[in-house]
Amino acid sequence: MLFNSYIFIFLFFPLTLIGYYGLNHFGKHKAALAFLTAMSMWFYGYNNIYYLIILIVSILANYALSLCMNRARVQSHKRIFLCVGILLNIGILFYFKYYDFFIENLNVLFRSDFPLLRLVLPLGISFYTFQQLSYVIDSYKGECDTYGFLEYTAYVSFFPQLIAGPIVYHSELIPQFRDAASRKLDFRNLSRGIYAFSLGLAKKVLIADTFSKVVAIGYDHIADLNTPSVILVMVCYSLQIYFDFSGYCDMAYGMSYMLGIKLPFNFNSPYKACSISDFWDRWHMTLTRFFTRYVYIPLGGNRCSKAKNYLNVLIVFLVSGLWHGANWTFIIWGLMHGILSVLERIFRNMPLRLPRMLKVGATFLFVTFAWSLFRADSLSDAGLLWTQLFCGGFGPLYQPITDKFGDLMEISFLHRAGLGTVMTSYPWIPVTAFTLLTLTACFTMKNTQEKTAQMKLTNRKILVVILLMLWSILSLSEISEFLYFNF
């Protein structure tokens, strides 16, 4: 089930709110948590019951291992359960996500002919696997309270963050399930949650999905693009993934707020970053902290020689790239970020001081260039795109792009408003203006978390919410998945 679908907006989530707060109102707190868990299971298994079975098996296995560790009296026994837990989680992830990638490269390297499994990747498996992996490791360290099975299941399956994050620690979510204050309907939280959800829905439906049309045409016809068209496609994908992921985070944050739960920030205006390190402190923040806590620090972090520290950074970014997908494009993308992060550390103390605006611009250009590799289906496609970028020549934008953009409902409205002649004569204006306006918003506007935390309910805010919801719902004719569902 998708957040940006009619069944979710008009049926699933209203039922969830009514049932959860209704049961809590009558003092049925355990039943309320069970209801929330059941709704989360429905949400996850709605499109494919096969996904739900995998999730349930994973929950049962990890909870059982954690119980065994808590009851073990000998340290060596705990260590065995820890190893089993790590191998189980990494093994499940490898089987579904990386098996075919490994076999394909093995076949190329040794000219073998091992068959591929062609497995369908279960939604959100990377997210809930990492979440449970953190729980198993923390159980080994003795950093977990005694949680009941229902609490643990609710923690793993909590639907706002189940399939695209944030990656939440048990200590952040389960205590909120137990908190009596969070079980009561708070109209301030409700209004803030609706506001955040409406902003997130608009980002996804009105902005990200609009850019996706340009990006899809561009990457399907790379050889036909000239230099201006390649630049446009690259910037549009940079904006598409920004608003797609930002929109999901806003909706997850807003729904949790409405349920009395506060999720950790996961997206903090990353295109305002002035370095790659700053970018990763702002983009997918909970993934960055997971790798820092469970990969970077165990490797030695910065408590070692500079050379070893640089190697640790490269390993973390390599793992991050591989986590995003089973393709060499993701691995090289991760290494690109890792190499630049190491270079930043090497030259950090240089006396040269650049204006912040220049550093922000340079960081955005690098991130956008790297995103082109992230989006490409193969290294050869990325190479062709870069060839067209530098050698494609100049001229008008690729016509199918401007034609597709001209078919949008909003552009049709502008035609009826009397701007048709201008846009027909200069078909590049709508897509270029929309791109520049959106890009400007990334660098200048506050993010949703800041707006929500400071929000005071006013008539203007109510009007904004109503207009955004209506506009977004009217634009839901083509319901698309979020990009991070693929990871």
Structure description:
This protein is an all-alpha fold. Helices cover 73% and strands 0% of the residues. It is globular.
* Sheet with the most strands, sense and barrel status: none
Secondary-structure element string: HHHHHHHHHHHHHHHHHHHHH
State the low-pLDDT regions, or none.
none
Helical content stands at over 70%
Strand content: under 5%
Q: Which value, in Å, is the CA radius of gyration? A: 24 Å
Query: How many strand units?
Result: 0
Total helix count?
Answer: 21
C-alpha termini separation: 17 Å
Quaternary structure classification: single chain
Mean pLDDT, as a whole number?
90
Shape: globular
Q: Quickly give the structural class.
A: mainly alpha
Present the secondary structure layout:
Layout (H helix, E strand, L loop, with lengths): L5 H20 L3 H17 L3 H23 L3 H36 L14 H17 L7 H9 L1 H4 L7 H9 L8 H34 L6 H32 L17 H5 L4 H15 L6 H19 L3 H19 L9 H20 L3 H13 L7 H8 L2 H17 L2 H17 L3 H6 L5 H16 L13
Summary tags:
487 residues; mainly alpha; 21 helices; 73% helix; 0% strand; globular
Summed up, what is this model?
The chain is mainly α and 487 residues long. It contains 21 helices and no strands.
